[in-house]
Amino acid sequence: MMDYEFKMKTQKDRIKVEDLFEFEGCKVGRGTYGHVYKARRKEGVPDSELKSRPDTKDFALKQIEGTGLSMSACREITLLRELRHVNVITLIRVFLSHNDRKVWLLFDFAEHDLWHIIKFHRAAKANKKQILVPKSMVKSLLYQILDGIHYLHSNWVLHRDLKPANILVMGEGNERGRVKIADMGFARLFNAPLKPLADLDPVVVTFWYRAPELLLGARHYTKAIDIWAIGCIFAELLTSEPIFHCRQEDIKTSNPYHHDQLDRIFNVMGFPLEKDWEDIKKMPEHQTLLRDFKRSNYANCSLTKYMDRHKIKPDSKAFNLLQKLLMMDPNKRITSEQSMQDPYFQEDPLPTQDIFAGCAIPYPKREFLTDDDSEDKTENKNRQNQQQTVRITQYQQQNPQQQQQQGNGDHNHGPNPKRVRLNGPHGGPEFHQHQNHAMQHQQPPGMVYSTNQPTQPSNFHQRF
Amino acid sequence: MAGNFWHSSHHQQWLLDKQDLVRERQHDLSILTEEEYQKILIFFANLIQVLGEQLKLRQQVIATATVYFKRFYARNSLKCIDPLLLAPTSIFLASKVEEFGVISNTRLITTCQTAIKNKFSYAYTQEFPYRTNHILECEFYLLEHLDCCLIVYQPYRPLLTLIQDIGPDDQLLTLAWRIVNDSLRTDVCLLYAPYQIAIGALQIACVIMQKDMKSWFAELNADMEKIQEIARYIINLYELWKTYDEKKDIQALLNKMPKPKPAPQR
């Protein structure tokens, strides 16, 4: 039983989310985790309520799916309450709404994320349009992702669900162009786990970004699993294509073994040689692997060839680092600390704190979702789960030609007629550096994605 | 930070000082003597231990639940929430935070009912009165009053490191580990850093086993005054236990304990 007076006093002291913020009709995201709103501070709300963020107008309010303190809400609060790093999203405040038993988390508002950024580049590529961004942008993105993950890893926190939608980028403001790693609902501490890390959530990490050892039934999550996902994101930034794109029916099956996803990985990487991954024999699903796959089917596959098709040269520093991040054997995969020392980051153009390096931000701001959008989305359930993000319907309308081009390219599975294919045709103007390779001699370091646009002067080499 | 005690909310927000405790307990101590107050908190720490063992939780989870419980009453009177409700709520929350998973509500309630009936009948004559909805409501209040600080550092890990440094000694470890468990029946987890508690427990263990480790302790570079204070708290507990029969005394104490008041009738 609770004391009446105590209840009344706690209730009086409690600040309600709707007392501080205006956010009706301002939904910007919807996913398995819940809803995210772009929230504006109400007039007269003092800074002291918002832990001294005097100039900030916009905030992100995340209403967690379901009621009460779910496991993922609990994780996110527990960890973010303790974490503090420029490249990890800051939890400003928690609101517990007693009446409807909802949990609200208040964050800084990030205008962009890698899912939207990559989508924008892919759409531009399909429409043969070019987008002006600094040559160093991908490098800056990768560096800051690694920096944030290194902080998490050195504090015994695994993210476990890294994917483009969870990598946010700040828009205009005092943290312009800064990466923020978000969505810690899957994250957990891993020093001396009380239960094997695989026991609680049978399957985490979206399939496309899932490391091969997980697909082969590894029982323990490791730092190397986050690093693999970062490798996938890096490749996707370089090419605008999800490197291990794979059609998938249902997400969150209790069985981690996933034939099609492994097939896709081997199609890009080649089938792992025993000498390259000695412990593969010890994987729980190794027998299934031997039964289902034939090495000879992948004889002509290699990361070198795949990236070369996407105009990333095998002798480039970018490729070199990518190869270390996407090492099949988790024991041989590079660590976040080692990757931050990689020559790629010492070579011009150097990474910048503002990933836009002072240039104009070419990406649109987040749009508000109506409830219709979210309903439409449930029809695209797979896609939605995959990306945990928004505006699928709009995307379909914009890119009819991409849909028609399904099945072209190097995906060896048939197109699913019901599903939107995000991959644009290969060989169009790429989202990435290859054009620049050709231009490097003629052009001062600067803009990359365009070959024929004037270079914009700005502070490209602002160092970390 | 999660991996670094010095940057943690535990270190920055939840190492209280003696004066804080005295001030916050003023109301309860106008009704109970200090010793009675301590006996009540010991009783509920025992209850949490028993519930945790019945639920097959690890000691780490039980310890975290106990610390949540004690943190709440370090800032609130015993009358604010019935400790019989807060105890299982603390366990429910700690199990999630420590990644032991969500304990099924029915299992938690059943465990409470059975424990109260079979193990604590000397304290409660009536059956366990709370249901799932009470626990869930209480969890929000607990979370609020903990200011969402949920990661608790325990002395167990520093203890293991210290023992490793001394050289393997299972007997010493077992004894010191038990003393750490016992320390959860004192205020030390609210007042001192976990590594200090570990050293304090180890020191008592060495004295009991007549193991002369003076020079090793001297080299630790720890604030020995604080270690002595911790040892004093724990030794006082052992002194109290020599003469105290919980089974005989607790019912009277629970009756005397300040109780929540329901909403005024109109």
Automatic annotation (TrEMBL), chain A:
One of its GO terms (cellular component) is nucleus. Its EC number is 2.7.11.22, 2.7.11.23. The keyword Aminoacyl-tRNA synthetase does not apply. Keywords: Activator, ATP-binding, Kinase, Nucleotide-binding, Nucleus, Repressor, Serine/threonine-protein kinase, Transferase. It catalyses: L-threonyl-[protein] + ATP = O-phospho-L-threonyl-[protein] + ADP + H(+); L-seryl-[protein] + ATP = O-phospho-L-seryl-[protein] + ADP + H(+); [DNA-directed RNA polymerase] + ATP = phospho-[DNA-directed RNA polymerase] + ADP + H(+). It is found in: Nucleus. Gene3D superfamilies: Phosphorylase Kinase, domain 1, Transferase(Phosphotransferase) domain 1. The lineage of its organism: Eukaryota, Metazoa, Ecdysozoa, Arthropoda, Hexapoda. It is an enzyme of class 2 (transferase). Its main location: nucleus. This is Cyclin-dependent kinase 8. PROSITE patterns: PROTEIN_KINASE_DOM, PROTEIN_KINASE_ST. Belongs to the protein kinase superfamily. CMGC Ser/Thr protein kinase family. CDC2/CDKX subfamily. Residues 383-406 have a biased composition (Low complexity). Its cofactor is Mg(2+). GO terms for molecular function: ATP binding; cyclin-dependent protein serine/threonine kinase activity; RNA polymerase II CTD heptapeptide repeat kinase activity. Residues 22-345 form the Protein kinase domain. Residues 368-464 are annotated as: Disordered. InterPro entries: CDK, Kinase-like_dom_sf, Prot_kinase_dom, Ser/Thr_kinase_AS. It comes from the Eukaryota. It comes from Trichogramma kaykai. Residues 449-464 have a biased composition (Polar residues).
TrEMBL record, chain B:
It is found in: Nucleus. Residues 46-144, 157-236 form the Cyclin-like domain. Keywords: Cyclin, Nucleus, Repressor, Transcription, Transcription regulation. InterPro entries: Cyclin-like_dom, Cyclin-like_sf, Cyclin/Ssn8, Cyclin_C_2, Cyclin_N. GO terms for cellular component: nucleus; protein-containing complex. Belongs to the cyclin family. Cyclin C subfamily. This is Cyclin-C.
